Amino acid sequence: MNEDFMVFSGSANPDLAEAVAKYLGRPLNKIDIRHFPDGETFCQVIDPVRGRDVFVIQSGSPSPNDAYMELFIIMDALRRGSAARITAVLPYYGYARQDRKDQPRVPITARLVANLITTAGADRVLTMDLHANQIQGFFNIPLDHLKAEPVILEYIRDQHWANPVVVAPDTGGAKTAYGYSRKLGCGLAIVAKQRTGDSTVDAFSVVGDVNGCDVIMIDDMTATGGTLSAAAKMCRESGAKSVHAFVSHFPLTAKGEERLMTETQLDELVVTDSIPLREGFDPSKLPFKLTRLSVAPLIGEAIRRTHENASINDLFNHE
């Protein structure tokens, strides 16, 4: 690998950025990020970037507004420093849930964020497990959409559950759950739900047989825990032996933490490190096991291949 590429990190998820840099066998490049007393963000890129291929790692959570503004400022500094190409690496794409106009006079904020990323100076985007696939079409620059699937599949296969079944916690996740069931060679079930509010969900039926099974519940994210809690309860009532939930992103809210502590009938929740754990959150107090899987090797390999103009198709379609 030649040395014409550089990796910088914003302050949203420095631990993941450090792990990516370690995978690539190099330290993160130096950048000075400070905040003035009135809340304004200041950024100075310390290392020269003229003519370099530059990657900026910044998750869109926690505090998506601050994270994105910081990303825009970093990319503007890189562009003015004459970087040859800037790739915005977004392990988690904040505002992805606002991807359509489903009420009168509301914004499509996921599209607005795409426009702002492009305007700020990104030449391409590298992200993982978008909440809605159509967000890829919001960009007029190249976008590589990674999936945490290979990391999650490796963990599931290592558990050697006797009677696994993949469950989609809602009908929107049926296609993803079907893909997992095909790769794992096991059954599929779907929980039909009705959302009654921003953080409340009424699950009302399970389509498929989970009786006596080890449930593998697949979802892209959980913030309030409503969908997972309702689906886990329904699976338990349908005779599931155990319930293990897998989510790519974990932007946990205070309400979600409370629900996980008191209402969720899970045996295990498995998340990735695309987002840092909520400040003050103590996983040891949960009534079930919380497991974190690292996506740093996946992102690091995608960065390496992007720089070398090599195919990353096999990272999309892991078998």
Could you describe the 3D structure shown?
The chain is of the alpha/beta class. The chain has two domains: 5-147 and 297-316, Rossmann fold; 149-294, Rossmann fold. 31% of the residues lie in helices and 26% in strands. It has nine helices and 14 strands. The chain has helices spanning 14-24, 64-80, 109-120, 149-159, 174-184, 226-237, 254-262, 296-307, 313-316, and strands spanning 5-9, 31-35, 41-45, 53-57, 85-90, 124-128, 143-146, 164-168, 187-195, 201-207, 214-221, 242-249, 268-272, 289-293. The strands form three sheets. A seven-stranded mixed beta sheet has the order 10-9-8-11-12-13-14, sandwiched between helices. β11, α6 and β12 (242-249) form a beta-alpha-beta unit. α1 packs across α8 (296-307) and α2 (64-80) packs parallel to α3 (109-120). The longest helix is centred in the first third of the chain and has 17 residues, at 64-80. The model has no long low-confidence stretch (mean pLDDT 93).
In short:
Helices cover 31% and strands 26% of the residues. It is α/β, with parallel strands linked by helices.
Oligomer: single chain
Number of strands: 14
- CATH fold label of the largest domain: Rossmann fold
Q: So what's the overall shape?
A: globular
Relative helix content: 25-40%
Mean pLDDT: 93
Number of helices: 9
Topology order in helix (H) and strand (E) letters? EHEEEHEHEEHEHEEEHEHEEHH
- DSSP strand content: 25-35%
Largest sheet: 7 strands, mixed
> Structural class of the helices, strands and pairings?
alpha/beta
CATH-level-2 architecture of the largest domain: 3-Layer(aba) Sandwich
CATH class bucket of the largest domain: Alpha Beta
